[in-house]
Amino acid sequence: MALMSRLWRESIRHYYGWLVLAVFCMALMAAATAFSAWLMEPVVNEVFIAENRAMLWPLGIAVFVTFLVKGAANYGQSVLMSLVGFRIIADNQNKLFAHLARMDLGFFHNNSTGRLISRFTVDINQMRAAVSNALTGFGKDLLSFVGLVAVMFAKDWQLAAICIFIFPMAALPVLKLGRRMRKVTANTQEEMGLFTTLLEQTFQGIRVVKAYAMEGYEKSRIAEIVERIFDLSIKSAKTRALSSPIMETLGGVAVCIVIVYGGYRVIEGATTSGAFFSFIMALLLAYEPMKRLANLNASLQEGLAGAQRLFQLLDTEPGILEKPDAAELPPVKGDIRLEDVGFSYPTGKHALKGISIEVPAGKRVALIGSSGAGKSTILNLIPRFYEIKEGRVTIDGNDVRDVTFASLYANVALVSQEITLFDDTVRANIAYGRAGASADDIVEAAKNAAAHDFIEGLPEGYDTMVGEQGIKLSGGQRQRLAIARAMLKNAPVLLLDEATSALDTESERQVQVALDKLMAGRTTLVIAHRLSTVTGADLIYVIDDGRVIEQGKHVELMAQGGAYKRLYDLQFAEDAWATDSVLPAET
């Protein structure tokens, strides 16, 4: 009941006007259905028994008009209910996306893409079906049933009372079936989310699947989850189908009683043949809406299972919230500080332990260290992708927790090793984040990113579709588009997360030239895998186990002979070894 109440408040009541019109059409249809049963008495008595020719045309026209009104009313309620149902889908999909867009990165790390997508598709569609079926059932079917029962009582109240007494016997088993239906549906929806996730992962990683000859393994995984969904679907079908034999049996009992008792009353002269046939027709017409009302609970429980999962997601608050009194970040010079910052992930791992770092405005600062040392965590705290528990992060002295998300994001640009490109044109990907950018601005950004020449060589230039995640482009090309995007944004703070580590030598050279242009005049924090790319940094921090163990310029750190020098010498030796041993000498 609470779920239905919330559905009404948040999704249905906004379309009250359409619903009123739909209910009017349903009432008109119910009245026409009842009147068609009522007409059976004069048709039988006046035409077939009394053979009254004068009544042929009036009764024939009355039947035609009745069915015409019934058809028009049914069309009206169907269209109006479809409008309400599909509007509910659109509204809730928009609402859900807006809510998820507010969630922090931790939420998306803990919830698979497939599960989230299933909320947009399976759950919301089932919720719409429940709303449409419930309103149609309680409107058209219930009104039709009530109207036909009224005709039955008008024709023979004793016989009607006997028939009506039988139908409540079906209520208890139907309610039990409904509760079972909700449980089965919830499990099916969960499996559909897992199925979507598995498909997405397999298709995105299809190159690895084929390279390692794992098609058979993936087939078995897909087959396993498909079988689980199949089993749950069969359970759902069996549960839904059980209501039919229950209603068929009770309907047979009712018709049997009517024929025996009603026939006896006609033979005895207690009622007319016309009244009896009118009663029979009303009973038979009432049987279909009665069956639909019996099945309504199963459909309703399916939809409520979807609504429950949807509302659980909508009720999940972001882990990072903007303060009600958050201020706009004033014009940024770019002085960044981390002051005694401690941070732990939900798993309990301590990523940062009282770390303090300063990135002076307009300077290039590098973070180096082994994998898992905490470098990326530091980078993610500046745009407040994660929330710190100890210390504070400031930009020009402003705590990032005290400013609006919009003003914070507007002043920060990010280029990482994992490039995100959308299945759109080159132009749209470069302009992403700066709505209304002119064609000249886009081209200028591409030129500065050393991307213009290769873009011009694409089949449709700037209007070429890059494919999902830029699959149609090389790694270096994708990286340069990301740099062009950051250049077009023109934010005063630039975050570079190993932006060249996955590139070949030539691509790295081109990207590094573009990065040098991008970093000019900006406060830049760089995470570097290749130390040769940060030797010219104004300041280098060596991070180990969430702490700063060394800091200074390249020359200073080399002179200290500590961790930085060991890392540098080790990498230099590895690079020299790789250069000498990539290919054997020709003989």
Features of the shown structure:
587 residues; alpha/beta; ABC transporter transmembrane region fold; Rossmann fold; 3 domains; four-stranded antiparallel sheet; 21 helices; disordered C terminus
Number of helices: 21
The CATH homologous superfamily of the largest domain is called ABC transporter type 1, transmembrane domain
User: What fraction strand?
Assistant: 5-15%
Number of strands: 10
Tell me, briefly, the overall form: elongated
What is the rounded distance between the termini? 83 Å
CATH architecture of the largest domain: Up-down Bundle
Explain this structure.
The structure is a single chain. This protein is an alpha/beta fold and 587 residues long. The protein has 3 domains: 313 residues, Up-down Bundle (ABC transporter transmembrane region fold); 172 residues, P-loop containing nucleotide triphosphate hydrolases (Rossmann fold, 3-Layer(aba) Sandwich); 73 residues, Rossmann fold (3-Layer(aba) Sandwich). It has 21 helices and 10 strands. The relative contact order is 0.08.
